[in-house]
Amino acid sequence: MMGKTDLGMLYASIHNEVEARLEEFRVLWAHGSDSELLRELCFCICTPQTNAKRAWAAVNQLADSGLLESGADDSAAREMLASVLRGSGVRFHNNKAAYIAANQRLFFPNPRSMIASILSHGVREARASLALRVAGWGLKEASHFLRNIGQGSEICILDRHILRQLVDYGVIAAMPRTLSAKVYLETERAMTCFAHDEGVPLDALDLILWFKAKGEVFR
Fold first, then answer.
1. What pTM was computed for the model?
2. Domain hosting residue 210, numbered range
3. What is the maximum span of the chain, computed from C-alpha positions, in angstroms?
4. 140 catalytically annotated
5. Does pLDDT of 172 surpass 90?
C-alpha cells in the first residue's frame, strides 16, 4: 500500500474518542468484575449478523435480569435467555442462547481466572484457544472479545464491514468467499501492514473503520 489515505486525518479528528474507548477496554481487564467480563463475552456471541447496539442491549438486559450468570443447566432459564435475545432483535436467538449456556458452564465459577490462564500463553495463542473452546466463536469473535478486554493491540477483528473497507482501500483484492484460518491470518497481516503505513495503532484502526461505516465509535 503506497501513500497515505484519509484515515490519518480521521484518526486525528476522533483521536480522543477512540483512545477513550480503548482505555475503557484496558480498564475493564485491569479492574472489571466477572460480570463485566461475561457481558463482553456474551456480546461477542450475540453480535455476529446482528446490529451491535441491539446485541449490547440484549446482553445488558440479561445481566440486569440475572440470566447472564445463571441458567446453564435449567431449560426454562435457557428459554428465557432465548426470549430476551429474540425480543432485542438478536438473530439466531435459540442457537446463541445455547452458546451462552454452554459458555456459562465453561467459564464458571471464576471467569477472570480462566481467561487469565488462557492469556498467559500469549494473545495469539489465547485467541486460537478461545476460538476452539468457546461455543459460537471463531477467530473473529475471539479477536473481538480480546480487543474489548484491552488485549487487541496485535490482532484484527475481520467482520464484513472491515473487510469491505479493506477492499476499498486496496489492502485486499476482493471480499474473501470464506474466512478460513489461513485466509484470516493472511488478511490480518495485510491489515497490520496497512495500519503501520497509515501510522495508526492496529486496535484503533478497527474503531476508525467502524466509524467510517457507522458514524460512531462503539465496541
1. 0.91
2. 7-27+156-214
3. 57
4. yes
5. yes
